[in-house]
Amino acid sequence: MHSLKLPFHIHRERLPRKRIVGPSFAEDEDLKKVLKSYQSNKIRTTKYSFLSFLPKNLFEQLHRIANIYFIFLAALNFVPVVEAFQPEVSLVPIVLVLSVTAIKDVFEDFRRFHSDRLVNRQLCDLYSSAQKDYVDCCWKDVRVGDFVRLSCNEIIPADMVLLYSSDPRGVCYIETANLDGETNLKQRQVVSDLPLQFSPENFHSRIECENPNNDLNRFRGFIEHASGVRVGLHSSNVLLRSCTIRNTETVIGIVVYAGHETKAMMNNSGPRYKRSLLERRLNRDILWCVALLIVMCLIAAVGHGLWLKNLKDPIFQVDGEMSPALAAFYVFWTMIIVLQVLIPISLYVSIEIVKLGQIYFIHNDLDMYNEEQDSRIQCRALNITEDLGQIQYVFSDKTGTLTENKMVFRRCSIFGVEYPHEENARRLAVYEEDPNRGASRTVTLKSACSRKSLTCRSLSCNRSSVSLHTLTAESGEEDQLSSHPQAKTAAFCSPMAKDVVPDPALEKKLNSLCSSLLHLSDGLFKTTSNLELTYITDFFLALTICNTVVVSSPGQPRHVVSGPVSSIHLILNQSRKFHNLFSFSCSSHPTCGTAFSITPSASNQDSKEALKEAQISSDRFKGSMEDQDEDGSSGEDSEDELLYEAESPDEAALVHAARAYHCTLRARSPENLLVELPGIGSLPVRLLHVLPFDSNRKRMSVVVRHPLTGELVVYTKGADSVIMDLELYSHIREQTQKHLDAYAREGLRTLCIAKKVLEEEEYDVWMKRQLLAESSIENREELLLESAQRLETNLTLLGSTGIVDRLQEEVPETIEALQRAGIKVWVLTGDKQETAINIANACKLLRSSDQLLTANCDNKDACAALLNELIVEVQCGQEGVSEQREDPSSGSTGFILAIDGRTLDWALQEDLRSSFLELSRKCKAVLCCRSTPLQKSKVVQLVRDHLRVMTLAVGDGANDVSMIQVADVGIGISGQEGMQAVMSSDFAIPRFHHLRKLLLVHGHWCYHRLANMILYFFYKNVMYVNLLFWYQFFCGFSGSVMINSWVLILFNLLFTSVPPLIYGVLDQDTAADALEEHPELYQAALRVIASLVLIQVHLFCFSKQALAGSDVDGLSFGSPINTSALFIILLHQVIESHTLVRICGSQVVLVTGPQCCDGPEPRSEPMVCFCVADMDSCARLVSQRCLLFRLRAALQHLLHRLQPPHQPAGGGASAAEHAPLLRHLCRHHSDGPDPQVHTQTHTDLFVHVIIKTK
């Protein structure tokens, strides 16, 4: 580590808003006041307290306009001149709804309170200045400025700056699984310039850092010692809350952020709440109901005024002093109270209950459980389940989403020479045929965690701790692991990735490294030139050390480079003799940017000694390898002893590939690496600096001291599009580019390897600027990026690699099903265009009959011209094939657009957006290649906002987070790249193929259930209100009701509340198998919401005629009407429910008369029989409509049989009265299925049947 020492009086950079941290027991009063102003470590995620619950909960519930409306009605009913019934009765519905919601909120808040209490009461070691020792303290009592001591396996209670580690190198290892889901260990470093024997009493420094934020990968600040020396702080010096200490016995840190100011808590947003499209439509429909209510009340008010004006000699009491206009005004408000049933007060609560039930069944679907990862679907957004049934565009990442993200080395190119690795290809083909062969030892999260806990035991770390969220015991898992020694695995370490078969030609060249020294005079270099051998050596050395891989083994938690020993001295002396024998110097060359000339520079005696020692070393190395080969088990164990924990699967694949050529990374420490080279043995490599990978640079670099030459060398690996621009032109570049294009056509992921030799003076100048950038607080990221770009220039290209990433299972079938469902699939990837096209072919997104359109432009004008040209081409192509295709959605399925990142930048600009959207709408799919995370989010936002469609984004990595958050529905895949995508998503699934059932089955069901439930709510309320409204025509529009006030109020809350809930949670209009076999039904569900047709209820007219001339009162008149209405409303729910039909059996038989009419003998008694058979077969053909058509026919038959043969004129209802209705039904039945289900027609017809049946 390096520190930048500056005098105190030199200009200091400060943030506009900064945080100052010092020891909490300091004598500085100003510092104590500042520390007390910061938050404590006590967390509180509850929404309410005991005193604030009632007012706060009421305030939140009053955000719903419906609740305000019913509170207004309840208050209005207390006004005597407009009251419709007892005032206290009107309070029941709103009080009941508010109470149910409040009880639900209390239950949820209590669960949060219980979880907070468990976390706050966990213990840690806190330094006490009074006792001069560490004492046990609860997490909630930790404050900023306190010193905390942690042991192995303990969870970090707050964000701390690392000041001490029991590791002599000042290193600490942490596991961030609770934070981002990544199980591979991260390395943290103690702040430099601190004494090895740390004591809190002797710490008098001050920390100045940025204010709390939610960026997990950034920390800016510095520590200022009493002497005025400033040392820069960055993310590698910080231990974040909820992470776990691993493989380190003791660490000490000072708290800088506590409680809700920690990065973990600032990223813990909890469940995501969004407004679904159906909910937004619902608000609009309720406004229409309000408008309908006002119209009905106006009609009643006008009718009452006219009735009073024209009333003469009334036989009942009428207030003659009140003017008709004022009476009409009062009746208007009275009718508002009477017809309040029209607004469904319980609808919002019912929707919430139904969605919770739907989420429960989605969450427990075994078909979406992944046994290998031991994970299932997670529903993080609780209120957008129905949006899953309305998706029109799917935007998918490629790596880790469509593919396994289990990288396996396939082939490479070095010095312009391609090595196909044919045996390796055959090995991968065997794994492709037998996936279980590679899956038998695949890493799971559980085994990885258990293994790390087991290795901690080897360090005598006996203290254990509970997880931040759950209390689990690991002893059972550890015992199980210890009984299975073959389960020794590491992150991204599967047999398929490890067992790389070397290419014979390349292996022969690499093994000649030592032989070339012994047989220099034998003319061996006639086949392998010195220059090519140097390139090959540097290539594999770069694969070995240009990474952040941590080396471990079951017996030793971390392989580190300890102090120099005699063997190291021997190797160093041998390396110097190699350097004296072969001097690698750079010189300009007309065809190569940097060429190497090998010139003997030692005396013959020195050469002989060096060659002799090299021969001895080589013989020892080969002898040890032969001994291991003779003992098969030991050899296998030796190979398996090294476990590589990489931050990405690419790194692991390259390290395993280098190891296959005996270039092995043996150990790592912050400043040294131990590398084993073929024919030479183990060599220490001085690690001077690491420039980590970032999405802007698209590369990573390491600065090392070359183990053989002693030169300062920069090794860089990254995307070919970036490395090629930084590389000096050479003949190798042309050949390598051809190989890269061939790799991309095969669907391989490509990386380029390059190097650069630095002069000592050049490195010193760069290092000073780098240290200034690291210690800077303002614009630190920009300065670091500029410093890295200054170093990574004029590179020498060494070669390239091709890494294979297999498709996940059932990806082609899933994409095909989504397209058949009318969903367009876009792939947004950072890979090359050729790679994306190859993957599109593999997953059936691009078929042989489709036409591929590529858009690659260098400037904006060319992009505009190309887009217009492609639009014309697509239009002409669609006109040519439209007559041959019957499916209207397939008229644009013949074109696939592939656009690169540079062209996409132009296309997303304001003046070219319309052209890009017009072209993309006409294409079956779009492949966006070389896309940055920002471009992904812009594409999703553009399609969502301008086309006004429902969008879904699915990804698995941190680079997909912005795209997932922008989409209407975000899906995260818990894959190999941590949990960032999952934490930002609405739903998380283990594998991509689970998206098929999530959308086509659960999405269809959720949308269909909720849509029909909402329609049913409006239907039953309008039907019930019509009874009250019809009655006003016979009571002078006075606002009187013929139904008991309690029955009227409880109509929505009690009598008709439970059936819609059961329907919304359990009903299945179509079987799951049928929905998956026929994805077209998904698109049919989008048309399920039909226009609401007002119901012509004949019950009132029937009751009036039946009771005409009698002396019954109003309630006796209204009771049968109310009972019949409830019966018909509930019967309609039964008819709508397909699940009830299945439960009752495959046939529903209605019979009138003593026997069924299908007997062997003719019957003279009046009887009717009809059957609705085989519900499942109807469900496969859009079951609801098929069932209703057969019900039409049955009801027609009932009316025909119930009509008397000789009815007197003027008595009863004649068949002619029903002729228009019957003709209407027959016409609908003959025309085929109607997309809109007119359920009112069947209700009217069924009412006629009931009326005519005695």
Automatic annotation (TrEMBL):
GO terms for biological process: phospholipid translocation. Residues 601-643 are annotated as: Disordered. It is found in: Endoplasmic reticulum membrane; Membrane. ATP binds at residues 397-399, 651, 693, 717, 749, 829-831, 930, 936, 959-960. Residues 626-643 have a biased composition (Acidic residues). InterPro entries: ATPase_P-typ_cyto_dom_N, ATPase_P-typ_P_site, ATPase_P-typ_TM_dom_sf, ATPase_P-typ_transduc_dom_A_sf, HAD-like_sf, HAD_sf, P-type_ATPase_IV, P-type_ATPase_N. It comes from the Eukaryota. It is an enzyme of class 7 (translocase). SUPFAM superfamilies: Calcium ATPase, transduction domain A (SSF81653), Calcium ATPase, transmembrane domain M (SSF81665), HAD-like (SSF56784), Metal cation-transporting ATPase, ATP-binding domain N (SSF81660). GO terms for cellular component: endoplasmic reticulum membrane; plasma membrane. Keywords: ATP-binding, Endoplasmic reticulum, Magnesium, Membrane, Metal-binding, Nucleotide-binding, Translocase, Transmembrane, Transmembrane helix. CDD domains: P-type_ATPase_APLT_Dnf-like. Pfam families: Cation_ATPase, PhoLip_ATPase_C, PhoLip_ATPase_N. Residues 982-1140 form the P-type ATPase C-terminal domain. Its cofactor is Mg(2+). The active site is at residue 397. It catalyses: ATP + H2O + phospholipidSide 1 = ADP + phosphate + phospholipidSide 2; a beta-D-glucosyl-(1<->1')-N-acylsphing-4-enine(out) + ATP + H2O = a beta-D-glucosyl-(1<->1')-N-acylsphing-4-enine(in) + ADP + phosphate + H(+). One of its GO terms (molecular function) is magnesium ion binding. Mg(2+) binds at residues 397, 399, 956, 960. Belongs to the cation transport ATPase (P-type) (TC 3.A.3) family. Type IV subfamily. NCBIfam families: ATPase-Plipid (TIGR01652), ATPase_P-type (TIGR01494). This is Phospholipid-transporting ATPase. It comes from Oryzias sinensis (Chinese medaka).
